[in-house]
Amino acid sequence: MSNSDILINIGRFVLLVFLQVLVLNNINLGGYINPYLYILFIVLYPLDGDKSVLIFLGFLLGLSIDIFEDSGGVHAAACAFVAYIRPVVLKYSFGVSYEYNSVKIKKADPMERLTYIASLVLMHHFVMFSLEIFSFNHTLLLLKSTLFSGLFTIIVIVCTMIIFNKKSQ
């Protein structure tokens, strides 16, 4: 990773944390639909970056959100899990092109990109809401929260990527 990639990732990390804490945490549709745009940091982390650094940064990202939300570590656990499982998701989303390191997420096939984003977001949300609810008695709430917040987050992430990808071309 070059120095410019490091600076871009630091800026993205800080911007996403503040955007999540100051703006997006105040959006609450229907009582259980919230966008979690900060996952975009893990989604866009360079593919040639160190995987153990990504797990640490994912944990730090989630911990930052947990500190501001006072949520007891659920975001940190979910982000660390998603950062850990990301290579597997990349492999089944992009297939052979990931193995040969020829994937550019912003320029990938839209269906592959959507599969990748949706998988990471839904896994993140399932882990996060499972730890937050932590009861088999509320399984329906867990699934509803995961599905609806996940769909809303996927839409917000895809729209954000479209806006910034058009701007950079």
Structure described in brief:
The chain is an all-alpha fold and 169 residues long. The protein is built from 7 helices and no strands. Keywords: Cell membrane, Cell shape, Membrane, Transmembrane, Transmembrane helix.
* Overall 3D form: globular
Q: How would you state the average pLDDT, rounded?
A: 88
Low-confidence stretches: none
Class derived from helix and strand content: mainly alpha
Second rung of CATH, namely the architecture: Orthogonal Bundle
Kindly report how far apart the N and C termini lie.
22 Å
CATH topology name, in short, is Arp2/3 complex 21 kDa subunit ARPC3
Q: What integer value in Å does the Rg equal?
A: 16 Å
Beta-strand level of the residues, as a percent range?
Answer: under 5%
Q: Class in CATH? A: Mainly Alpha
Quick one: biggest sheet? none
**Number of beta-strand segments:** 0
Helix proportion: over 70%
Number of helices: 7
Domains (count): 1
Secondary-structure element string: HHHHHHH
Main location: membrane
Subcellular location: Cell membrane
Organism: Aequorivita flava
Protein name: Rod shape-determining protein MreD
